[in-house]
Amino acid sequence: MRLLLISRLFFPLTGGVATEYTFLYNQFKNKKYKLDISVLTSKNSKNIYEKYKSRFILRSIFDYQNKNFFFFKLLYLIFSIISCFITFLFVFISQKKFDIVQIHSNFLFIKKSNYINYSILIFKFLGKKSVLDIKDLSSYPSKDLGFDYYLVNSQNTYNLVSKYISPTKIKLIYSPLIKNKNKKKTKKKIGQILYIGTISNQKGVQELINAFPINYKKIKKKKVELHLYGEIIDKIKLNKNTFYKGILPHNKAIDKIKQSEILVLPSFSESLPRVVLEAIFYNTKVLTSKGVPEIDKSLNSKNKILSIKKKIINKQIKFLLTKKSTQKYNYDFSKHEDKFVKKQFYNFYNSLEKNEYEFI
To answer: Residue 258 domain-assigned?
Structure first.
């Protein structure tokens, strides 16, 4: 069976998909699985098998996401259409044909997910079966786009997508938890508050920033600081003791999670945020939005943001700072274990090839 995974051909770059696609390649590269995986991407990485990395890919030289000019929108659209067409031809004329083509949805939805780049849909025809891989609540289809199947990684995403697409075409497989191989104990930086993710209005980042500075007599900390990491989508205005630190590779993100006292994610909508799962796994205190079924069961009320408003966030951070520097949780990580996830994907792909899969 030959599988093609597609992501990151041009802006906007996607988030954790490269990590997950690397996981799939590493898990199935053994010949005993009889699963030949290729990853089509513009991102350079030693861990990603880039058999069909095209050198014809055009990249925009401006941050189109923060521009509202019609010329920039039109120029980006032209770039993306040409890029898709040339890359499609490059792969199509190759000797290798694919049984399944899987496209990451963040690559399909552009301009903050306000519209679909329909030129990307031509990649469906590179395989006998096509799968749209949906990882984010902000990049889901509101109608059936003609894919054979739709892959989701959370109950929230499944519930949302099933409103528009028949559940018989949707499969839920949880993402693997990529663990840090560094077994050295990490010393907590008391008073360090962490945010990792897209810097956007949808994620409630400005509300979090506005909750600072945090001054509280009962908090025996010399300084309480907010460190923000991630790709900037919307403009933000920093306050006192708030710092934007840039973009982190995944292995460095884990180190920051282990070092920080509290991870905060005040998002207005989430599927199943991996960064929160990682914080739970490493016993870092979390403060996150309500509404994620898998996580809500493991958190007490003090870990859930009551309302995404600066005064409430400020008050809840203060409370968590008065508690122990670490926190233990009761979360079932079995559905994220490598062996379980690998089995789920293997059965899924084999069933697609045989055209006998029934989703429940």
So the answer is: yes
241 half-sphere exposure, CB direction, 13 A CA radius: 16
Question: Which pLDDT score is estimated for 312?
Answer: 95
DSSP character at residue 304? E
61 to 68, 76, 117, 198: CA distances (angstroms)? 15, 10, 19, 20
CA distance 151 to 24: 14
Query: What's the whole-model pTM score?
Result: 0.81
CATH (domain of 292)? 3.40.50.2000
Instruction: Kindly report the number of other CB atoms within 10 A of residue 19's CB atom.
Output: 19
Which residue has tokens 């506005």?
Answer: 210
Q: ω into residue 141 within 30 of 0, thus cis?
A: no
How many independent structural domains does the chain possess?
2
Among candidates 64, 43, 233, which has minimal Cα distance to 138? 233
Q: At what angle do helices 250-259 and 274-281 cross, to 10 degrees?
A: 50
Confidence of residue 229 (pLDDT cuts 50, 70, 90): very high
The structure tokens listed for 313 are 């966030």
- Tens of pLDDT, residues 49-67: 333 333 333 333 344 444 4
**Alpha carbon distances (Å) from 237 to 126, 192, 206:** 44, 19, 7
Q: Two tokens at 318?
A: 């203060």
3 state DSSP class of 237: coil
Residues 164 and 226 in one domain: no
Q: Which domain holds residue 304?
A: 189-321
42 and 173 in one domain? yes
Residue 75 inside a domain? The answer is yes
pLDDT digits (tens, 9 = 90+) for 117-164: 777 788 888 889 999 998 877 778 888 989 999 999 999 999 999 999
Do residues 108 and 52 share a domain?
yes
- On the question of pLDDT at 278 being above 70, the answer is yes
